[in-house]
Amino acid sequence: MASPVRSRLSLAMERTGKWVFSKDIPTDVVVVVCEASFSLHKFMLLAKSNYIRKLIFESKEPDLARINLSGIPGGPEIFVKAAKFCYGVNFEITVQNVAALRCAAEYLQMTDMYCDNNLAGRTEDFLAQVALSSISGAITVLKSCEDLLPLAEDIKIVQRCVDAISLKACNEANFPSRTPPNWWTEELSILDIEFIGRILSGMRKRGAKALTLASALITYTERNLRGLVRDHSGRCTESSISDDSGMYVRERELLQSIVSLLPSEKAALPINFLCCLLRTAIFVKASNSCKNELEKRISVILEHVTVDDLLVMSFTYNGEKLYDLDSIRRIISGFMEKEKNMAVFSGGDFKETCSAAMHRVAKTVDSYLGEIATYPELTISKFNGIATLVRKGARKVNDDLYRAIDIYLKAHPDLDEIEREKVCSVMDPLKLSYEARLHASQNKRLPVQVVLHTLYYDQLKLRSGADDQPDAAATSQLQSDVSLVRENEALRSELTKMKLYISDMQRNKGSSAKTISASAATTSGPRKHTFFSSMSKTLGKLNPFKHGSKDTTHIDDNIAVDITKPRRRRFSIS
């Protein structure tokens, strides 16, 4: 089956033969253009083309019968039209072929300097009066120039198209003539990114607003990176995306070019669009400079981000696993640095004051942690690393952070006590609401220390009737009591170990114990210390009440002591 190109060539050659061989004079030259050959008359071509005239008269052959014009812009199809022009045969000039005809006229030197009303003049008139009089026409001509470079650039067709589009696009942006008002951005999307950059630069010089330029770039990106960039609802435009980033070499280069064209105004681009660009940049392995530029832009307006926006950057396209979270950390760090600089500039104390933007970001980050907490790729260090980027003063309450921690502990049930304490270390239990404290006091997943914090704070409130925030004295008292409870826990653990040890000795060495007991009965003299008394003295050194009213380490073991039930202490565990 013949290809479409060969079919068009055959048709063109057939039509050329009809109007050539209808002449009475036989042909005397064969013109070769790529794979096509045309039998023509020298005198008809010489009358219009200075280039062909030079080839014939400067040839070393006395009667040149074959000319190769394979380098003509537009190929055989455009040469047919140029040859028809030489023969005076009518043909149609359109916005699709005018650029190629103009370049062919330049290549064949069919200018008005060589012959009046030549092909170059005819195409110039069409460009000025028809093609460049509308945005659609100019865009079509510019699109056709992509295959005509560098000649189309040399004869200024490209620049004329760029100037016409820039001017008319600015007029459309200010005074729309059609609906929707940004219809022209869709038509721009067919152009090469290099032409887009030149058009946007021309519009900027003519005073176009940043929002107008951003609208054109967003439409261009969504059309040319279809399937990689999500729309504004957060949905992917295509359902199936390959995870092989090596397939997207063209997309990587295109994305990097788009990022370099983004307007500098921070409010020009919606943050969800920037998040989509960054997630695409991570996926296609764009350059570090490209990703850093997007991260800086997002961090500047992070207070407008939503949890869904952060999730867009965090997951693979199938949503099954997390990306590397370094970009998220850099974005949050950049925002905190910006807030710190603003506080210093305004003369405030960054450690004591928090802006409304910081409060919003803190709430968003905590909710984001709750969404990703169930994924096994999220280690404790990554979880804490993101949580600690937001300083504790930015959180009025820790309820969202507590929810994220609880989800993490539930999703990772194999964590030991130390690891659970490490997870909970990013949270201040004293900043939980009453409902959250009530839940935490009954939460078996939390470490004991956190539960004690919440219980003790509730007792302080009931006794003092204070507001919802503890004072420094209460916090200090709580810390000392928690320390005391932990020492009691250690003491109880040692006692349990000792009892188990003695039980083992009694079972395994029963006969030896009887012998030792008989020998002790017949031996006179002062009482010797037993293993039990030695262990008691050792444990006494761990006694948290030493040097207090209940200290008994100075009492001789041989003196009888009246043992009474000690007064019950708060938080003692017996």
Automatic annotation (TrEMBL):
Metabolic or biological pathway: Protein modification; protein ubiquitination
UniProt cross-references to InterPro entries, sorted A to Z: BTB/POZ_dom, NPH3/RPT2-like, NPH3_dom
Source organism, top-level taxon: Eukaryota
Domain NPH3: 182-461
Residues of the BTB domain: 27-95
Cross-referenced Pfam families: BTB, NPH3
UniProtKB keywords: Phosphoprotein, Ubl conjugation pathway
Recorded family membership: Belongs to the NPH3 family.
Protein name as catalogued: Phototropic-responsive NPH3 family protein
